[in-house]
Specification:
With about 425 residues, this protein is of the alpha+beta class. It is built from twelve helices and 23 strands. Strands 12, 15, 18, 19, 22 and 23 form a six-stranded antiparallel beta sheet that branches. A five-stranded parallel beta sheet has the order 3-2-1-4-5, sandwiched between helices. It has a four-stranded antiparallel beta sheet with strand order 6-9-7-8, sandwiched between helices. Helix 5 packs across helix 6. The N and C termini lie far apart (about 50 Å).
Amino acid sequence: MMINVLIVGNGGREHAFTWKASQSDLVEKVFVAPGNAGTTLETKAKNIKISASDIDALVSFSKKENIDLVIIGPEDPLVNGISDAFAKAEIKCFGPSSAGAQLEGSKDFAKSFMKKHNIPTASYESFTDADQAKKYIKENSLPQVIKADGLAAGKGVVIIDDFETAEKTIDAFIGGKKFGDASKKIIIEDFLIGQELSYIVMVNGSEYLPLATSQDHKTIGEGDVGLNTGGMGAYSPVPFVDNELDNKIKKEVIEPTVKGLSEDGIGFRGFLYAGLMIDSSLNLKVLEYNCRFGDPETQPIMLRLKSDLIEMIQTCFSGSISDYKVEWDRRSAMGIVMSSSGYPESYETGKKISGLDSFSYKDNTKVFHSGTRLENNDILTNGGRVLCVTALGDDLNQSNENAYSAVKQIDWNGKYYRKDIGYRVMK
């Protein structure tokens, strides 16, 4: 029997999920709430004008349309209990409970969890008092990292190199001027040196299935400088992750995390993302957890996934996910985020995008929409991150070349993109 699927969210991650779900022989219809201009272009897919934050409306819609499976993209509704609401309505929802989502919703909670379960992470302290936080900074060597405790769309992290910046950041965060309630509590932790790695697994409570490795580029500027963003590009797989390092990550991070959640009575069914820092000696520490798939990591990973995503998710409800034989395209995938000029601060929207008709998936290139909308048959910009242009290639160099070739053919007034995605690992 074919099923109806609801995907919640409106970004590039949700477009990638929609694209994969539409390919599944198990799926009759895919609804996306609220979706974007890209999701409307996929077969079987239809956008629904319901916000990702309107949990009651999403549950009501799902009952009315006989939704069999809900996939949650963004973190906010997960932290606010959307999975709990669907569980109460007896509708399968792939995403952790509100309790499980606290791994991302509160960095203080995540740090305490890691300390309790002996999971490696940077030394830290948490603060709600600005004077105490400033005193801590002055008593410790720089650089340090200041993080908003709550959700800040990937932007609530500042690396501190001097005391003046530290004081301004602490005042802006704790005073609520920067991220509201999300930054009234802050984490100050040791600055770590190394390469970042995104390690994402599917969890069904007690078991997990590792997915392809990826690496994100978080800052706005080339050479990894400037303000943090939601992510400016990503690639998969990561060449320095061999079997030895992969097993080390599982043993030291993933297995104690999954076991710890179970021991603490926290039901976790969904995507679990561990953001890792790996130094030159291959020592690793957890920078943060996400309780969902990363964006833009989703886009290159979905482009490489040959298995049926919906079948994989269904297995998390009905079978042993650890036994699932997932199949990957052996080629590399590179995703380049195209953003609105000014992002991650103020930017304009409503700019007409040209050049999107130049590509199709048969060219091994897929343009995933993030911040777009459809108006009078024109596709307009509608967000900070607008597109993620993603391409396959025999190696990272070729996938990089293919992706940037496509990027150059797409245009709007005020487009911006980093020109060095993948620079750390390309030959």
